[in-house]
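// run 5 | inverse folding | seed 20
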């Protein structure tokens, strides 16, 4: 599937910045978790220290022939201390695990809130989707950075404390032992750091593969996709593509694991050499330098512990670096900047100022990463209450234009005015209230029909308004035929007793939703594409009623619908090339006439023609 591409971009945030970010949030969200995190640090050092001191005390007590009472006191105090420490550690570890899980869930909630609230443009393209996937990988499980920070920092700080204490003990034997152990650990750290940085950069390759695998897994069980999979024998294609992307994922993971394996192998070799030299020196000291057996046991445990502390520090530092890099991914997603105005905005049009006037001046739009403009030098004035049709071939830029008008995208150049005020001067969420939009890509919510239309709680719904929009949209007969009527649930993948609406019925439901919102500007993007000609003609007959006292923009490939509009704008390759009413454009004999003539037999046969 192509060679691996490793990007050289440095992380946006520093290590200490990310540690501060995570700890500040921990203190803000769960002070108990933060306190238990601190409690564990000294106990994780004190417990092992008592454990290596106990054998020395036991041997020294025996060799010095202390009394039984003194022996029991010496041993008992240490044993009780170890038991107490272990008990407190187990309790605090349990609290940390539970608290850490809840702490990670907070970040997942932030991700969800960001996805719902950020400007649509931020998550509409591949860059935004990649950021979202990498952020998800930072909160995926208990080993992910947002939860692992508690165990990694606890381990790191306790290991540093252990190195200091144990190092002091070993220093009394020979300072060079400490230097040799530290040197081998530094080598391990840099090799582990190399593996971590490779994994971080390799996520740019892994995230798109994960997205494709998730898409295939999701669609394989989707009710709508399942029909096509079977009828068009697409199952084998899905399986083949899943295998291809899975192999791609395995190949990328192997790249990560091979470097991790190299780091672990070198760690094992250095540990063997390091421990061999240290233990050999201790044995030499017992045999030839009068070291007592008790001290031998203590130093033996100290050297072993010191090596373990250092190895653990290396692992902790590498894990901390991984946490840091994953936190970078999370923060880069959460910190995506919104372009639309989120503060105080211009005042919305008053009732007496409606319907709205829309003016587009010198508008250009280029998608992120694209070389060419999708829309170029668009100048268009939609008058109050005007019914405008946008027509043109697929990919001409019609949907992009209405997304710009409705505030989902922001212009690359140029301005959009609503009632004489720049679209960017309005508060974004207030601006959205001026639009009722039906797009081609439709997503139903796993709720009742009435809630899918009103997007309100049952107690807040307007029954008369709901009944009116059901009639206007042509969905009333379908709803009346259902045992539960408008309370019938949708989305079978969530509710067992839900129903599945046909494509045309779904479009009618979306039209009803737009009408229920009752915004002053209505935008309909192919609202009748899934309807049969008779149902489509019924909608057209109601078009004036549907858009009464509204400014409306209507996109359609079926040019018969354009005759119901006041004005028609033909867009080609991102530019307006023809403009006028139906008859004017027919007389012009341009692109509109050419497209209309190609479709005219359909209109004459099905709707009656001219």
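// decoded
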């Amino acid at each position: 599937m192509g060679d691996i591409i490793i990007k050289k971009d440095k992380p946006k945030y520093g290590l200490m910045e990310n540690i501060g970010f995570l700890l500040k949030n921990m203190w803000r969200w769960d002070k108990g978790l933060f306190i238990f995190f601190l409690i564990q640090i000294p106990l994780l050092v004190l417990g092992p220290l008592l454990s290596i001191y106990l054998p020395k005390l036991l041997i020294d007590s025996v060799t010095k022939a202390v009394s039984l009472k003194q022996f029991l006191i010496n041993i008992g105090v240490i044993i009780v201390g170890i038991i107490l420490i272990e008990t407190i550690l187990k309790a605090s570890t349990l609290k940390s695990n539970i608290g850490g899980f809840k702490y990670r869930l907070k970040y997942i909630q932030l991700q969800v809130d960001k996805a719902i609230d950020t400007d649509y443009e931020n998550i509409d393209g591949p860059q935004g989707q990649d950021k979202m996937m990498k952020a998800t990988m930072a909160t995926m499980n208990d080993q992910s950075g947002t939860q692992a920070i508690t165990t990694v920092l606890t381990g790191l700080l306790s290991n540093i404390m252990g190195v200091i204490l144990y190092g002091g003990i070993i220093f009394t034997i020979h300072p060079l032992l400490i230097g040799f152990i530290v040197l081998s650990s530094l080598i391990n750290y840099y090799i582990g750091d190399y593996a971590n940085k490779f994994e971080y950069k390799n996520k740019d390759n892994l995230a798109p593969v994960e997205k494709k695998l998730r898409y295939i897994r999701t669609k394989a069980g989707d009710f709508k996709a399942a029909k096509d999979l079977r009828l068009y024998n697409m199952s084998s294609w899905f399986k083949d593509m899943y295998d291809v992307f899975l192999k791609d994922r395995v190949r990328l993971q192997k790249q990560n694991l091979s470097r991790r394996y190299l780091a672990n192998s070198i760690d094992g070799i250095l540990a063997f050499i390091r421990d061999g030299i240290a233990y050999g020196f201790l044995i030499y000291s017992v045999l030839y330098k009068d070291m007592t057996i008790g001290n031998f046991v203590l130093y033996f445990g100290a050297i072993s512990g010191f090596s373990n502390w250092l190895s653990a520090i290396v692992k902790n530092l590498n894990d901390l670096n991984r946490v840091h890099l994953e936190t970078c991914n999370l923060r880069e997603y959460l910190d995506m900047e919104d372009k639309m105005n989120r503060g105080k905005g211009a005042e919305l049009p008053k009732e007496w100022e409606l319907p709205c006037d829309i003016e587009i001046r010198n508008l250009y739009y280029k998608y992120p990463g694209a070389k060419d403009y999708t829309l170029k030098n668009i100048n268009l004035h939609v008058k109050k209450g005007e019914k405008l049709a946008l027509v043109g071939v697929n990919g001409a830029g019609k949907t992009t234009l209405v997304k710009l008008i409705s505030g989902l995208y922001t212009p690359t150049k140029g301005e959009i005015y609503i009632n004489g005020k720049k679209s960017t001067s309005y508060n974004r969420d207030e601006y959205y209230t001026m639009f009722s939009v039906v797009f081609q890509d439709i997503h139903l919510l796993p709720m009742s029909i009435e809630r899918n239309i009103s997007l309100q709680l049952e107690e807040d719904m307007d029954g008369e308004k709901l009944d009116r929009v059901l009639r206007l949209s042509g969905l009333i007969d379908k709803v009346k035929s259902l045992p539960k009527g408008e309370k019938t649930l949708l989305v079978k993948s969530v509710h067992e007793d839900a129903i599945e609406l046909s494509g045309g019925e779904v479009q009618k439901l979306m039209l009803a939703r737009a009408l229920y919102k009752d915004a002053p500007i209505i935008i309909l993007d192919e609202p009748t594409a899934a309807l049969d000609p008779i149902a489509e003609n019924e909608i057209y007959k109601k078009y004036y009623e549907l858009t009464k006292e509204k400014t409306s923009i209507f996109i359609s490939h079926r040019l018969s619908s354009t005759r119901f509009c006041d004005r028609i704008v033909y867009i080609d390759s991102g530019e307006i090339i023809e403009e006028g009413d139906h008859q004017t454009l027919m007389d012009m004999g341009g692109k509109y006439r050419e497209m209309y003539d190609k479709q005219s037999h359909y209109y004459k046969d099905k709707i009656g023609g001219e």
